[in-house]
TrEMBL record:
Gene3D superfamilies recorded: PucR C-terminal helix-turn-helix domain
Domain PucR C-terminal helix-turn-helix: 345-402
Annotated ranges, domain CdaR GGDEF-like: 156-293
Protein name: PucR family transcriptional regulator
InterPro entries attached to this UniProt entry: CdaR-like_regulators, CdaR_GGDEF, PucR_C-HTH_dom, PucR_C-HTH_sf
Record family assignment: Belongs to the CdaR family.
Length: 434
């Protein structure tokens, strides 16, 4: 015999505790992730299940209360529960609760509750999806602001003690060396596509947009991401793509230039400059300074490759006043030549460049055979890695020699007419003698 609605409500309120107990037992028996939870979180999940049953009773009494379902059910759980229980697990929780209620209702002759249970389970499922969607959206906006803050700190070089924790909060899974790429921002920037491309290159990336400049901070990463135990965050779009096959243990890591070439399409028309590699993300400001300085002068190089390494623009950067480029040229070129045993390499390179890269003119100036000049230039190439016989590399070497000579400490030279210390001493004694 069918009950009236008032009788059904009274019956539901009477068995609410029994339903909650049966639901928790069902969760314990059927859901391994629930059994493995710490007691505090299991208690929170139980509160959600009990709130769901009470909310169903309230909804059955007044179906117009649908908009409050999410607040009624999920408001009983602490905020950190959303970060430890995934949407899939939440739906499993809802299914287990609905099955317990359905089984209890089926044991009676009154089947008038079956349709309300189906309607309510649909509403609660949509409400759960809405809660997680809002949480994911809020997390995405927060991540974007934090990512912009981290990239800005790297570009400005104002790294502080909070930078490592901010990087960790972003889920950075790069390891080892890091490099910075700078180029123009495209008209339409697809951030998700950039992250997917980086992931297929076994790299992680931080993205920063500063006006018309697009800045990418890249680091090599393991193909498979490992999350902390018990934490299953909402995956980013790029994380649902199939991961690349891991390379063998003996395979060399992908160079940053190859990664930059793979990410080239993310930038708009114009130069794309890759900074030099640095040991870790905290030291990325040095790579950023090099990339920004190279980006500022890249238009001065005709037919520059895309992407171009910042170290390939050292002369232009030095002319533009970049102190890092000047010190790099002196340290890599002038100092090794100056410290090399014997002055013939430095003197030969000076003469060769001053004589318009002519072997014969250099040989006449140094009073040696042209083959001797050719041999010394080969030793310069072996020592420095730059070939003086190439037009572009000769320019780099010439700029380094000029900067090195300017940076050398000056010594005051005595004019021929000026007496030396000994002469002044003798004249002083002569003038003072009685």
């Amino acid at each position: 015999m069918a009950r009236s609605k008032a009788e059904t409500l009274a019956w539901l309120r009477q068995i609410a505790g029994e339903l909650a107990t049966a639901t928790l037992k069902r969760l314990e028996d059927e859901l391994p992730w629930y059994r493995e939870m710490p007691p505090g979180r299991r208690s929170s999940v139980g509160l959600v299940a009990q709130a769901g049953i009470r909310s169903f009773i309230g909804w059955y009494e007044d179906p117009a209360s649908t908009p409050w379902i999410a607040a009624d059910v999920f408001g009983a759980a602490p905020r950190e529960l959303l970060r430890s229980v995934s949407l899939q697990q939440t739906l499993q929780l809802i299914r287990a609760t609905v099955e317990v209620v359905e089984e209890r209702v089926s044991s009676t002759s009154d089947q008038s509750l079956r349709e309300p249970i189906l309607l309510y389970s649909r509403e609660i499922a949509f409400a759960a999806a809405d809660v997680y969607a809002r949480a994911a959206e809020a997390r995405g906006l927060w991540d974007a602001r934090l990512e912009a803050l981290v990239v800005d700190s790297i570009l400005s070089g104002e790294a502080d003690d909070a930078l490592p924790s901010r990087i960790a909060a972003l889920g950075w899974h790069g390891h080892g060396e890091v490099a910075v790429i700078v180029g123009f921002t495209p008209r339409l920037l697809d951030v998700d596509q950039v992250r997917r491309t980086a992931r297929h290159l076994a790299a992680d990336v931080l993205i920063g947009v500063q006006g018309n400049r697009l800045v990418l901070v890249i680091g090599r990463a393991d193909p498979v991401r490992s999350w902390p135990v018990g934490v299953e965050p909402v995956p980013r779009p790029e994380d649902v793509e199939p991961a690349p096959e891991p390379a063998g243990d003996d395979a060399p890591p992908t160079s940053f230039l190859e990664i930059a070439k793979g990410l080239e399409d993310a930038f708009g028309p114009g130069p794309v400059v890759l900074g030099d590699a640095v040991p870790d993300l905290v030291a990325a400001s040095r790579s950023a300074r090099a990339a920004l300085a190279g980006f500022a002068v890249a238009r001065a190089v005709r037919h520059a490759p895309r992407p171009v390494e910042a170290d390939d623009l050292l002369p232009e950067r030095a002319l533009a006043g970049d102190p890092l480029a000047r010190s790099t040229l002196v340290a890599r070129i002038f100092t090794p030549l100056k410290d090399h045993p014997g002055p013939e390499l430095l003197g030969t390179l000076w003469a060769y460049l001053d004589n318009g890269r002519s072997l014969e003119a250099t040989a006449r100036e140094l009073f040696v055979h042209p083959n001797t000049v050719r041999y010394r230039l080969k030793r310069v190439t072996e020592l420095l890695g730059w070939d003086p016989t190439g037009a572009r590399e000769a320019m780099v070497l010439h700029a380094a020699l000029i900067l090195g000579a300017i940076s050398e400490p000056q010594t005051r030279r005595r004019s021929p007419a000026e007496p030396g210390p000994a002469s002044r001493s003798r004249s002083g004694r002569a003038g003072g003698a009685p």
